[in-house]
Amino acid sequence: MSRRRIGFWYRLAAVIAKPPLIVLFKRDWRGMEHIPADEGFITAVNHNSYLDPLSYAHFQYNTGRVPRFLAKAALFKPFFVGTVLRGTGQIPVFRESTDAANAFRAAVTAIESGECVAFYPEGTLTRDPDMWPMVSKTGVARVALLTKAPVIPVAQWGANEAMPPYAKEKKFRFFPRKTLRVVAGPPVDLDAYYGLEPTAETLRAVTETIMRAVTELLAELRGEPAPEGLFDPRKAREGK
Fold it and tell me: Residues in domain Phospholipid/glycerol acyltransferase (predicted)?
């Protein structure tokens, strides 16, 4: 399978985004050797800042394997942003709609064509008080089982220090200069799940396996042990 050509729109996005990222931030990138050279694959990435998609995309762009993100359909509505998203091959997700299945079909097609599809399995910024990954949605598991493509866990830290999630005042904190840390790990071993029926229980188990790998990488970046389990915002709201 051939890799996706970077193309005009991705190069334009890079021309716009890379200079300020290079000027404003230091970088600590690890694990690029785990990004497959040619075949289709999935990345599963933690999400702790509105800025971190740019941090991760910069890392991945420099490997030569550009990601296709699953992005909220609303982001495609503004003319210029929508044009860039469509031009770079990003995949719209229609949440709370039967059209959500189309996103997964598009993801499967892209992977089978030799491309990279990037998942933010949490679906939104983490609600964990200490910003560890939280219990995630199972779309990444469904696509992983359908394609049997390598699932590369990716953890990142640092964008949240420049732009904290859910801050009352949406202010950037550029100084002192922050370091955007990104690490990719080896493919998650999902062999035990291939061939099983994609029941809710199986999908949850696969998702948890993937997110545990992401969490372990984040612990490496943060230099501290990860919590035993993943934060569940639903249980937190219910006081359990």
Answer: 41-159
By DSSP bridging, strand 116-119 and strand 41-45 are: parallel
C-alpha 73/C-alpha 92 separation (Å) is 5
Segment holding 15, helix H or strand E: helix 7-24
**Structural class in CATH, domain 7-162+176-237:** alpha beta
- Classified as helix, coil or strand, 128 is coil
DSSP state of 182: E
List own/partner pairs for 198-203 with CB under 8 A and 24 or more apart: 198/141, 198/142, 198/145, 200/138, 202/141, 202/145, 203/138, 203/141, 203/142, 203/145
The per-residue pLDDT for range 61-85, each reduced to its tens digit, is: 999 999 999 888 888 888 888 888 8
**Is a pLDDT exceeding 70 seen at residue 5?**
no
Would you list the domain boundaries of the chain?
Answer: 7-162+176-237
CB atoms within 10 A of CB 13: 19
How sure is the predictor about 129, in pLDDT bands with cuts at 50, 70 and 90? very high
With H, G, I as helix, E, B as strand and everything else as coil, classify residue 97: coil
C-alpha closest to that of 113 among 124, 105, 121: 105
CA 130, 187, 55, 116 torsion-angle sign: negative
Buried b (16+ CB within 10 A) or exposed e, 86-108: eebbbbbbeeeeeeeeebbebbb
Element holding 202 (H helix, E strand)? helix 200-222
Q: What average pLDDT does this structure show over 6-31?
A: 91
